[in-house]
Design brief:
Length: 288
C-alpha cells in the first residue's frame, strides 16, 4: 500500500473536510494517507519546497507552484459576502503607512491587502497571534482569518472587510472570494493522482452529508478549537456544498484573482485554473 502525505491546516473547515478519511468513512483503496496539520502559511512555504504529496494552500500561492503541483477540484474555501477582516482598536485612526499584522506573505488576504494598502508596513505572524498584537499595540491593525473572524475582542472594530476590497477590485462581477484550496504533486503517477482526487472529493461529500455526526465526533475528541454553535456557523461559511467540487463561477473567481496578482506584479504571468487540473479523462481513455 502506497503512503502519501496530506497536509492541511488545523482549522475547523480543513479538519472537517479531511476527517471522513481519518475516521475510516471513505475507502482509500491501495493508498494510505498520512495527514499532518500545520498553519496555512507554513503549508504555503512547504509547498514552495514540494514537501508534501498533497497540501492545502492559499489560492494566491498557486501560480508560484504551478509547475510542481496540480490544482485540485475539492476541499476549497470561498467567501461569499464575508472573509478575512482588517481590525484595529476602537477610536484609533490608521495612517497611510500603518503597521499591520498579516498571517503570511503568500496568503490570499495578503495579496488583496497589499494591492489595497501599498504603503502599509507589514509584519507576519501566526494567525492566532494577530489579535493580541493589535490589542497590545505592537501593530496598528491586523487581518483576522479563519475562526478568528467570528470571535474577537469587543475593544476592536472592523476597519475594512477583505470582501469589500475584493468587490472593489472586481467591479461589475458577482464572484466569490477564493481563499484556500488543495494541490497535488505533479510527479505522482497520473492514475494515482486521479484516484487521490476522487477520494478527497468523496471525503468532502461524505463530511457534508453527515455534518451533524462528524461535527459531534470532532468536538468530543477536541479536534477543533471552537464550540458547537461556532463550528456550525464556520462550516456554513467555509466547508459547505460548494466545497465538494468547484463550479464554473469558482474557476472564474480564481482566474480573476490570478489576473489581479499578475497585473500588480505578484506573478510572472496570468494563468487559468482549469489548465492546471488533473485530467480525469485520461482514466477513461486508458481503458479503451
Amino acid at each position: 500500500m502506497k503512503t502519501l502525505s496530506v497536509a492541511h491546516s488545523p482549522d475547523a473547515d480543513d479538519i472537517f473536510m479531511y476527517y471522513a478519511i481519518k475516521f475510516g468513512w471513505v475507502d482509500t483503496g491501495n493508498v494510505c494517507f498520512d495527514n499532518i496539520a500545520l498553519d496555512i502559511e507554513t503549508l504555503n512555504v512547504e509547498a514552495l519546497k514540494t514537501t508534501y504529496d498533497i497540501s492545502a494552500i492559499s489560492f494566491a500561492l498557486y501560480p508560484k507552484i504551478r509547475n510542481d503541483y496540480a490544482l485540485l477540484r475539492t476541499a476549497v474555501s470561498f467567501g461569499e459576502g464575508y472573509g478575512p477582516k482588517l481590525v484595529k482598536k476602537k477610536e484609533s485612526t490608521l495612517k497611510r503607512n500603518f503597521k499591520v499584522a498579516l498571517s503570511g506573505t503568500h496568503t490570499t488576504n495578503a495579496l488583496l491587502f497589499k494591492i489595497a494598502y501599498p504603503e502599509a508596513r507589514i509584519v507576519y505572524k501566526n494567525f492566532l497571534e494577530i489579535e493580541h498584537a493589535v490589542l497590545s499595540g505592537e501593530v496598528d491593525a491586523g487581518v483576522l482569518i479563519h475562526e478568528s473572524i467570528l470571535d474577537f475582542s469587543d475593544t476592536l472594530v472592523v476597519e475594512r472587510e477583505l470582501w469589500d476590497i475584493w468587490k472593489e477590485l472586481t467591479p461589475n462581477k458577482e464572484l466569490p472570494l477564493p481563499l484556500g484550496g488543495m494541490a497535488l504533486r505533479r510527479s505522482m503517477p497520473l492514475l494515482q493522482a486521479i484516484h487521490c482526487e476522487k477520494t478527497l472529493i468523496k471525503a468532502v461529500d461524505v463530511a457534508h452529508t453527515h455534518q451533524q455526526l462528524l461535527s459531534k465526533m470532532l468536538l468530543e475528541r477536541n479536534l477543533v478549537r471552537v464550540d458547537d454553535a461556532t463550528l456550525k456557523t464556520y462550516l456554513g461559511l467555509y466547508a459547505n456544498a460548494h466545497s465538494i467540487e468547484m463550479n464554473d463561477l469558482q474557476y472564474e473567481a480564481i482566474d480573476t484573482l490570478f489576473e489581479l496578482g499578475y497585473q500588480h506584479g505578484f506573478y510572472d504571468q496570468s494563468i487559468k485554473a482549469k489548465d492546471y487540473l488533473i485530467p480525469h479523462e485520461y482514466e477513461a481513455l486508458r481503458m479503451r
